[in-house]
Design goal:
Helices cover about 80% and strands about 0% of the residues. It has 24 helices and no strands. It starts with a helix and ends with a helix.
Amino acid sequence: MRCVTFGFMVHLLNLLAAVALLVWGTQFVRTGILRVFGENLRHILAVGMATRGQALLAGLGVTSLIQSSTATCLIVTSFLGRSLVTLSAALAVMLGADVGTSLMAVVFSFDLSWLSPLLIFGGVVAFISREKTTAGRLGRVAIGLGLMLLSLQLIVEATKPLTESPTVRTLLAALPSEVALDMLVGAVLTVASYSSLAMVLLTATLAVSGMVPMTVALGLVLGANLGSGLLAVLLTARGPMAERRLAIGNLLFKVVGAIAVIPLLPYVHVWLQHAGGGLHQQVVLFHLGFNVALAVVFIGLTGAAARLLIKLFKEPPRGVHQRPQHLDPSALATPSLAISCAAREALHQADVVETMLRGIVPVLRNNDLVLAEELRKLDDTVDQLYTSIKLYLTQISREALNERESRRWTDVVSFTINMEQIGDIIERVLQDIEDKKVRPNRRLSDAGMAEVCHLHERLLANLRLAMSVFLDGHVRDARKLLEEKARFRDLQYEYAASHIARLQDNTTQSIETSSLHLDLISDLKRINSHICSIAYPILESAGALTATRIRPSVLAPMDSDLQKSE
């Protein structure tokens, strides 16, 4: 009896190991493809959303490569967060993404056992010999594909002894034939494995081995589709509602489709038997047919669905959130996605800084101590976001980054440092206004107030331009931002001279607030310097910067005099 029990446990362990290998292989392929083509995949999605049909095809193509509709959802969600795409187009992309994963399941349903050792061997050779190159990363993808194929073979071998066990047959026979229960099991396993593709392939293999009846397998496939939608909802749950609507809408499409299909399952089962092919092919064809049907039915309704989602799931009224909104831990395995998450959080940090900056003039004009206190507290938010972004970026594997991603990583770090330092300066400015103007009950001269307001307006415009430069990386805008640094410096000198002239005229208000006025325009210039420094990495990458600002014609006489003195 003990020998039988031990043998059963060994076979069960082999099955679990094979399933784990299937999930691991899927992860290997997904992360490998994203590391090689991450930016290009974003470009395909970004330019392929002009129409709903193009959006569907873009989602299908990208997801066929990365083999994960969830990863595609995260990419498209980042576009929604930047308001680069409409919710209607994003929903069409997700319909195509689900068809893409279904097509890959069909591909894996063919007998590709001969391909597994070839992919693993070639992938290992390429990965070890040229690990940090594109060829090496493609070798990683090949290893993942080979492991997926190998795991399917191992699952078949592991299930054969289990299906012959009288105990297993008794348990399977005792299971209730409830579609809802099958769907629940399929959804839970899909969320746990982070892959609907792996779940569908596993279900097909278990159906072939006789571990599960075909009717149960169809329910598991429906559950895998629901689990895929639920997984996306869970991963975006911490984001703003504008981003969460995509995952919710995609899940609602699947729920409606599953409810409509449940009464038709007996007829679908009969039709699949008449269509021919083995049980494995029947399972994956059902998966493909379900998602194609969803795409056909809902592609024309994405606009109406988007309007309904916006109406039902409104953005709650809120102030500035202190907690990070976009640092998704699940994206850390894919550096290109993780860097995008960090960039979005950096823009959130910049929004908080802009709120602080906008409040300077109202505090100055109205002597509003309550507003000043609220704005100073926001500096803690800026510091917390800086720390969160910094720690998040340190968790990204630098070795897995290509040259472009490595530059972007550095740009995000530099941007957040500048925003944190700007927040500190604004906090000191607000404290100075309280100590030198509000509490002593003094006021700036009309001319001095106009000068500060002018600098403040230019500063806000430069901050918005800097955020655009950070987001898009346009060299033209970066050059314009750097030119603004010189203009701002000239204005500071001009206004300082004007203030000195008013002091010479014995203007009482200028004399009382002289220290505050000069410190204020100096601090605004320092803030502007931090803002304009965001342009340097973009201009340096484009080769638009010189090594020094001093003219060579001036350096030559200086070097000559230095040599003579020596």
